[in-house]
Design goal:
The protein has 10 helices and 5 strands. It is an alpha/beta fold and 242 residues long. The relative contact order is 0.14.
Length: 242
């Protein structure tokens, strides 16, 4: 009898996990469908442009409308520049490296924003492997713009999707490891890395998940993207003014 009860409980937990995952997947698909990656033609005859090369956060998944994404907020501040958004949901740093090699080196962009790295954490890719890929990605990016900026996800473990699970601690640990690597590689290459990681006691996404996270509990909401952009904006402004 105890064995039967145990089996029933295990099966129940498996079904709950599957059902929860299926619901999150459905919500994520909806978040992807409802938004179109933000791009703009620019005003006037600005000879240079802005390129965003990213993953789902570059795409704007969770923002509800592309104008509320990082690309959209960047475009609003620099409306005179044409902005191209080459972002894809699920993209890793290795995939970004493959993609950037297909892009022309001329004319050079006024700004190349790399919004990447979260999927490498989620997929638990080896940090040493990703480090080598990132070095190559930066090298390719610098051929296409003198102003290369990278942002990545903050603390993935703080996402509401993982609250109360073992994954929360695991993803926080991985986020810290990747963050340290991102900082080191940026220092070695001269690329501007904008750090979005916050300690748990200060993390707005952990403190107010309903405000800063989308309905799947993983991607930022429009308020979440605005929060990130407020960290990014001063760094971009300094580059444009230099």
């Amino acid at each position: 009898m105890r064995l039967i009860i145990f089996i029933v409980i295990v099966l129940g937990l498996v079904l709950i996990a599957w059902f929860t995952g299926a619901i999150r997947l459905a919500k994520t698909i909806w978040l992807i469908v409802e938004v179109k990656p933000y791009e703009q033609m620019g005003v006037g005859e600005n000879p240079s442009s802005i390129l965003v090369l990213g993953d789902s956060t570059g795409y704007g998944t969770g923002a509800g409308n592309g104008k509320y994404s990082i690309a959209g907020l960047l475009g609003a501040d620099y409306f005179g520049y044409p902005l191209t958004n080459n972002s894809k949901n699920g993209r890793t740093i290795s995939e970004a490296l493959v993609e950037i090699q297909t892009l022309p080196t001329e004319p050079a962009h006024a700004l190349l924003l790399l919004q990447i790295g979260g999927n490498d954490i989620l997929q638990k890719r080896p940090v040493d492997v990703v480090r080598k890929e990132l070095m190559q990605l930066y090298s390719e990016a610098k051929l296409r713009s003198r102003n290369v900026v990278m942002i990545s996800s903050g603390n993935v473990g703080a996402a509401a999707a993982y609250t109360g699970t073992k994954k929360a601690d695991e993803y926080e640990r991985l986020s810290r490891q990747f963050r340290q690597m991102f900082i080191e590689v940026a220092s070695e290459t001269g690329v501007t890395y904008v750090d979005l990681f916050e300690e748990p006691e200060d993390d707005a996404f952990l403190r107010e998940p309903r405000k800063y996270l989308a309905i799947n509990g993983l991607h930022p909401s429009k308020e979440g993207y605005a929060y990130w952009y407020n960290v990014l904006a001063p760094e971009v402004k300094a580059l444009f003014e230099s």
